[in-house]
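Sharing a chain and its predicted structure for anyone who wants a worked example. Both blocks are below, sequence first, C-alpha cells second.
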Amino acid sequence: MSGDRLTRGGMDRIAGLHPYWTFAAVALFDLLLLGAIITTLLAGADWTEDWIWPGGPEILPF
C-alpha cells in the first residue's frame, strides 16, 4: 500500500475521503434512520389512539 493513501494518523482513506468523514456520514444516516423509525412508531400509535378513542385533543401534530 502506498503512503499517499494514508492519512497523517496512519488510517486508510475510504473512497478517497478521510475516515472521519465516512464515520460521520454513517452516524448521521443511523440517526436519520432512528428518527424515521421513531416517527413511524409514534404515527402508528396516534392512528391507533384515534381509531380506539376518536376525537379529543391531538398530542402529535400529524
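Comments welcome. The radius of gyration is 22 Å.
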